[in-house]
Write a structure and sequence with these properties.
heterodimer, A: 78% helix, 0% strand, B: alpha/beta, Ubiquitin-like (UB roll), Rossmann fold, Dimethylsulfoxide Reductase, domain 2, seven-stranded mixed sheet, six-stranded mixed beta barrel
Chain lengths: 76, 952
């Protein structure tokens, strides 16, 4: 799936959770949303994209994907 | 003509009353609820009082003078239809004097009525004929030579019914049906005395008048004056079967009146819980598609989409499809195939397809067309209220004091509910409409919206936040409700959020385009006007913030306590007949039936045990993800049942590129639709008349679909899915759809009380139906929300990334029209094209003038996604800067222009906001030229296939 498309999707999700005044809660909400609705391959792609610099990812989505990446690493 | 199967009690049942009135009718004691008419009381007691102008579909009128009775202590001969029962009343319905009076009345009627009963279409079910017999008419003393109306010409302009004025008895039932039932007020009695006649609009033909062809007048007519053309052609039906309409989400109940296996006419069911005997032009009349010559009745296959289709046996077609899916999975992995269901499928069909995907394909790549319409409703209502469904019954609107319509056009898209809503509005309910376009309900006979919030497309969240701001800052919150019923922390957070000055109507006026004073007044009305009910449609969901808007709606309802009782609530008006059902049945890549996530171990194990397979715990691909993956070469096989993604999904060129990249597309449908032109296997499906099943309407109402004729290709759709599953190596064993429903009930907590037997007993059931609610649940969230406490969500307004600029200065929004239905596969193959035979681009006179465009000119519509050409309709219904079109015809390419932008939570496409430019042109767009060539080629390939077979 095109990384530009996934980045846009992540940014759109991030824009919703940005309203949450406690940033940690917003990040948690976004991670939970992606876990629930994205396929494993899409999740792996966005994590890989972040590892390669995460071009285009806005701040909150970047933090959320970072958190996903850390969880994935912890599991391994 | 009334239904051949229904008994008519003459006047409507009164409002429910515990007070019974006992009276004597012809010496028999009868007890009926207070408020019942004498005529109805007699009918309930088994005594038929002759009548002509009375029918229980309409309020009593008292004009025909045939139902005269004698009542002890009352002067003269009161009309039994307009006289209400009283305790101890003594009524005589038959004696010599009454008989003479009735014969005198009938004599006058018959003196000016054709005596062609033997060749009359109503013969056998004509109320005039019946009454002549009932009163014992034996002669007409006036003769037939005098001045009369027998030579009046028929009006045959309407494609579905004929108006034969020579047979009219001026009972006014048609006029009253148009007023009371439909609410269009298109008919009137024109002239006085002998010159009186029924006229449509300003004495226009029926076709040219305001008539919307709902057929209420035809059903109400006691003679053959207004008759269905199918009845005239085919003669009287001999049996009828109750079934459910296959069009919009109202889910009207109909009696299919049949002659053997041939449908004579559809008559709305008086006992129908969603429609109470009413219908629209689609459900009643637009049924001809089921027998249209375009229907494909043989399975077909081809290796490439450039090959001719080859008609084959079911075994070969199913075998080929299964072998292709297996080949693709062997080479590209288990996840390289998937399926899409349609909201036109029954619950049982949808359930089986998701079961096939999960059990036979071994993945979760199953989605349904609710993805592109109401998926944000499912998400937004689940987050806030705890259940992905509307909260009310349709009848609840009759208790509403304030009706708030957001992004919906009920009189076009949900016409039967639209009529009910109009009845309530005529009774005095107040109306708020939020819509960029001036829909009919903004101002029509006897109805005017108190507030039309004519917002800019894409600013729903801003508008709802500003309404909430007024509610919170002006102290209009129902604090007691919120404190008792909602999560306190989330409520407090939300209050702080919406109270910020940036959410005030004044601050957001520049974004929404709605004057702040109107927003404030509308908010006050909604919060303080009594029972306030919100009705919304795709104008809410099909946005980049569709889910946020649904949550904002739920917030507003919770904040004002407008939820959990009759007359209030959050009511999504579902587009297609089974949108609710297809979502309920787990046709989503992340959910099992009953909205339970695939990662939920307990639920997954339950399905694993019952189905005897292990299931995936990660979500699969959504429809747009499938397209993206196809273009990446990772998703190559698709089983598509009843859905036309090539026409209905946004950014057509992107969709068709994805379809072209797939190696095996199996389409199961009635027709060679747009998607089938990219398919390799065609499995001929069955129409709603040819199978058993259930549909679930917008009220969560499960209703039976009953088979009245054989599927021309031999199999119902659920049987075809079973064949395919077996060929894939996973055998399903059901001998009837009732067994599928039994399995659904055994696995789904909200359906445990549902069975075909129970549906037959109750007529219909609104889920949840289980031990806690054995009769079903008409109103949800009464004492507590499904999720326990209601949850307020923060709804930040995020403008869409689809921006207008110098190159694309206008906003295009799309919608529907009364006579056509979605992609038009059904209605385009009926006479409904009489009213709408092409999609047109509505634009404001100011924008038209700037571009030198006149009404009817061809205009090119360009967006960032593509370009198409259609004819212009210059109208002030749209505001300057806004253009609008429907999407019922593939050639108009409305979705060539729409973009890939989608709802952040569900990927529901942003159909409602596309930046475009409009210019006058003289020829079709390049896409249209390519499309026509491709489409013609596909028709040739279809013809070549059947020609080869004919030669053999």
């Amino acid at each position: 799936m095109s990384i530009e498309h996934l980045t846009n999707m992540a940014n759109d999700i991030g824009a919703f959770f940005h309203a949450e005044p406690v940033r940690e809660e917003g990040i948690k909400g976004m991670v939970n949303h992606i876990q629930k609705f994205w396929t494993p391959r899409m999740r792996a792609q966005i994590i890989e994209h972040l590892r390669e610099g995460g071009e285009g990812l806005e701040e909150l989505p970047r933090q959320a994907v970072q958190s996903m990446a850390e969880s994935a690493e912890a599991k391994q | 003509m009334l239904s051949i199967a229904e008994k008519d009690f003459g006047t409507p049942a009164p409002a429910p009353s515990e007070q019974l009135v006992t009276l004597s009718i012809d010496g028999f004691e009868v007890s009926v609820p207070a408020g019942t008419s004498v005529m109805r009381a007699a009918a309930l007691g088994g005594i038929a009082v002759p009548k002509l102008c009375a029918t229980e579909q309409l309020e009593a009128f008292g004009s025909c003078r045939l139902c005269l009775v004698q009542i002890e202590g009352m002067k003269g001969y009161p009309a039994s239809c307009t006289t209400l029962v009283a305790p101890g009343m003594k009524v005589t319905t038959q004696n010599q004097k009454i008989g003479e009076l009735r014969r005198g009345v009938m004599e006058l009627y018959i003196s000016d009525h054709p005596l062609d009963c033997l060749t009359c279409p109503a013969n056998g079910h004509c109320e005039l004929q019946d009454m002549a017999g009932a009163v014992g008419l034996r002669e007409v003393r006036y003769g037939y030579e005098g001045e009369n109306h027998l030579k009046l010409e028929k009006d045959e302009s309407n494609p579905y019914f004929t108006f034969d004025a020579s047979k009219c008895i001026l009972c006014s039932r048609c006029v009253r049906a148009c007023d009371e039932v439909q609410g269009t007020l298109a008919l009137t009695v024109q002239g006085r005395g002998f010159d009186s006649k029924i006229a449509a609009s300003q004495d226009d033909s029926f076709l040219d008048s305001e008539c919307v062809s709902c057929g209420a007048c035809v059903q109400a007519c006691p003679t053959a004056t207004l008759s269905e053309k199918t009845l005239i052609d085919k003669g009287q039906a001999e049996h009828s079967t109750i079934t459910t309409c296959a069009y919009c989400g109202v889910g009207c109940s109909f009696r299919a009146e049949m002659k053997g296996q041939e449908l004579v006419r559809m008559v709305p069911n008086q006992d129908g819980h969603a429609n109470h005997g009413h219908s629209c032009v689609k459900g009643r009349f637009a049924i001809g598609y089921t027998t249209h010559p375009d229907r494909i009745t043989k399975p077909m296959i081809r290796a490439k989409i450039t090959d001719p289709w080859r008609e084959v046996s079911w075994e070969e077609a199913i075998g080929y499809a299964a072998s292709e899916f297996k080949r693709i999975q062997a080479r590209h992995g288990k996840g390289a195939v998937g399926a899409i269901t349609s909201s036109r499928c029954t619950n049982e069909e949808t359930y089986l397809v998701q079961k096939l995907v999960r059990a036979a394909f071994g993945n979760n790549n199953v989605d349904t067309c609710a993805r592109v319409c109401h998926s944000p409703t499912g998400y937004g209502l689940k987050q806030t209220l705890g259940e992905s469904a509307g909260t009310q019954t349709f009848d609840s609107v009759m208790e509403a004091d304030v009706i708030f319509i957001i992004g919906a056009n009920p009189t076009d898209a949900h016409p039967v509910f639209g009529s009910q809503m109009k009845r309530r509005l005529r009774e005095g309910a107040k109306l708020i409409i939020a819509d960029p376009r001036r829909i009919d309900l903004v101002r029509m006979p006897h109805i005017q919206a108190q507030h039309h919030l004519q917002l800019r497309p894409g600013t729903n969240v801003a508008l709802l936040n500003s309404l909430a701001h007024v509610v919170v800052t002006e102290g209009l919150v129902n604090e007691a409700f919120a404190a008792e019923r909602c999560e306190p922390e989330a409520f407090a957070k939300w209050k702080t959020f919406v109270a910020e000055a940036r959410h005030s109507p004044e601050a957001l006026e520049a974004d929404t385009g709605v004057p702040a004073s109107e927003v404030r007044a509308a908010a006050r009305l909604y919060a303080t006007g009594g029972n306030a009910a919100i009705y919304y449609g795709l104008g809410v969901t099909e946005h980049s913030q569709g889910s946020t808007t649904v949550m904002a709606i739920a917030n507003l309802a919770m904040a004002t306590g407008n939820i959990g009782r009759l007359g209030v609530g959050v009511n999504p008006l579902r587009g297609q007949n089974n949108v609710q059902g297809s979502c309920d049945m787990g046709s989503f890549p992340h959910e099992f039936p009953g909205y339970r996530h695939v990662s939920d171990d307990v639920t997954r194990h339950l399905f694993e045990q019952t189905w005897g397979v292990s299931l995936q715990s990660d979500p699969g691909l959504r429809i747009p993800n499938m397209f993206e993956s196809a273009l990446d070469g990772e998703f190559l096989g698709l089983y598509c049942e009843g859905e036309d993604i090539a026409q209905s999904d946004p950014n057509t060129q992107h969709v068709t590129a994805a379809l072209s990249a797939m190696e095996c597309i199996v389409v199961q449908d009635l027709f060679l639709n747009e998607t089938a032109k990219f398919a390799h296997v065609f499995l001929p499906g069955s129409s709603f008349l040819e199978k058993d099943g259930t549909f679930t309407n917008a009220e969560r109402r499960i209703s039976r679909v009953r088979k009245v004729s054989q599927a021309p290709a031999g199999y119902a759709d659920w049987e075809i899915t079973m064949l395919l599953s077996k060929a894939l190596g996973y055998e399903m064993k059901y001998s009837h759809p009732s067994e599928i429903m039994d399995e659904i009930a055994s696995l789904t907590p909200t359906f445990t009380g549902v069975s075909y037997e129970r549906l037959d007993q109750l007529g219909s059931i609104q889920w949840p139906c289980n031990d806690h609610a054995p009769q079903g649940t008409p109103i949800m969230h009464i004492d507590e929300f499904v999720r326990g406490k209601g949850r307020f969500m923060l709804t930040e307004y995020v403008p869409t990334r689809e921006k207008v600029n110098g190159k694309y200065p206008l906003i295009l929004t799309t919608g529907r029209i009364l006579s056509q239905y979605n992609v038009g596969a059904q209605t385009r193959r009926t006479a409904n094209n009489t009213w709408h035979d092409e999609d047109r681009l509505e634009l404001h006179p100011h924008d038209a003038e700037e571009r030198g465009v006149k009404d009817g000119d061809w205009v090119g519509v360009h967006s960032r996604a593509g370009e198409t050409v259609m004819r212009a309709l210059v109208t002030p219904r749209v505001q300057p800067g806004l253009v609008y079109t429907t999407f019922h015809f593939p050639d108009s390419g409305a979705n060539v222009i729409t973009t890939d932008n989608s709802d952040w939570a569900t990927n529901c496409p942003e159909y409602k906001v596309t930046a475009v430019q409009v210019v006058r042109v003289s020829q079709p767009s390049e896409w249209q030229k390519r499309y026509r060539k491709f489409s013609e080629r596909q028709q040739e390939l279809l013809k070549q296939g059947s020609d080869v077979l004919a030669v053999k």
